[in-house]
Amino acid sequence: MEVLERAGYSAYLVGGAVRDLLLGRAPADLDIATNAKPEIVKSLFDRTVDTGIRHGTVSVRVRDQWMEVTTFRAEGPYADGRRPDYVEFVDDVVADLARRDFTINAMALDRSGRLVDPFGGRQDLARRLLRAVGDPVERFREDGLRLVRAVRFVVQLSLACDPATERALVEQVDAIRPIALERIGRELERLACAPWHEHLDWLASLPLWRQRGEPLAWLEQGFAWLAARRPFSLAPPPGWPSVALWFVGLDEDAPLCGKRFAESLAYGKDVAHSVERAVRLVRAWLGGADATSPLMLYEAGYDAAVMAARMIAFLTCGDLFERARWKRAICNQPLWDRADLALPARDLMDMGARGKEIGEYQQALVKAVLSGKMKNRREDLRRLVMAWRKEDDGHGLGGQ
Ligand code: ATP
Ligand code: MG
């Protein structure tokens, strides 16, 4: 901000960072707004990236910290309910604040600590009120993502909705339909790090989720199932374990639904896979299965097992016995992956195993280790394979 000001421009901290500072929370990221055009911003700093230069945003690195510097802008009409048809740069911070979604996000702070707050965001924050900037109906129609953002802020910051905003949040739910799942996913990621367990009835009652069809529509049932299991005394585990918890109670194939949800929200294949297997493990546990057995943990894999342990800690309100049981089982798990067998495939080949046989031996070794019959030690495993080969006269797996 000092650099911009010295060059004769104005600069403000804006948006979420101002809100979080007023709340005494650590800001997630820093957004700076300025009347300097992007080309000027780029010329003033050594390290910049054209993050969204067409919309006026340049990322700038100062003292090991990236921040987004965006030229004051006003937005043209929204024909598609997603993005403005065009943006235009303006010279006035108030005009820039007017395009923002909620009053608590529409404040600016200059370097001297002066707050620019044309919509009463500070008062709303003090009253813990979420209120759209301007007409809520219009603001939700312009960009349906704001519906999900509203839900996220209510939960994240324990806010109540202003009556007009609340009404619009229910009546304009179909505005979510044209919004890309990835953008929705980014907001739900933040919801998954917030105390959603305190708002389960409200979350389950929102007509929002079903507007967008599956996989989002599944959330309604997922939240309702959790609502029926309250009270929960622990804060939910942040991130993916929370996302997985939203799917545990589904009637349909819950693990697959969780996987599809994670995939379509672009959370990546690994995450989707872990969510699927964690949901499966927790459902097995709910059904009374011995879910911490080495075989079940092996099938889930390490990431999903840890995720499931966190989910179960939440579901049991931190039950000490369950916690200890999962911790012990995960620490003592002898094998998580076939690749972790102490006997390398090379050794099997030295013993004469070929082709498909190698995989079959490995599978049998995994079984022997998981059953506790064998320790995962190279010599022990080698002896076992030799015994099998002798029994079988060098062929097959001797009854394994
Ligand atoms: P967080 O602290 O989680 O980052 P945030 O409020 O900073 O929350 P961002 O997505 O980082 O959220 O957006 C930064 C600012 O940009 C917001 O505070 C708001 O002023 C504005 N903004 C973001 N998304 C929208 C939107 N869909 N419509 C209007 N304004 C938006
Ligand atoms: Mg932010």
Automatic annotation (TrEMBL):
Xref: Pfam families: PolyA_pol, tRNA_NucTran2_2
Biological process according to GO: tRNA processing
GO molecular function: metal ion binding; nucleotidyltransferase activity; tRNA binding
Signal sequence interval, chain numbering: none
Keyword Magnesium: yes
Cofactors: Mg(2+)
Keywords (A to Z) from UniProt: Magnesium, Metal-binding, Nucleotidyltransferase, RNA-binding, Transferase, tRNA processing
Family assignment from sequence similarity: Belongs to the tRNA nucleotidyltransferase/poly(A) polymerase family.
Name of the protein in question: tRNA nucleotidyltransferase (CCA-adding enzyme)
Protein species of origin: Alicyclobacillus vulcanalis
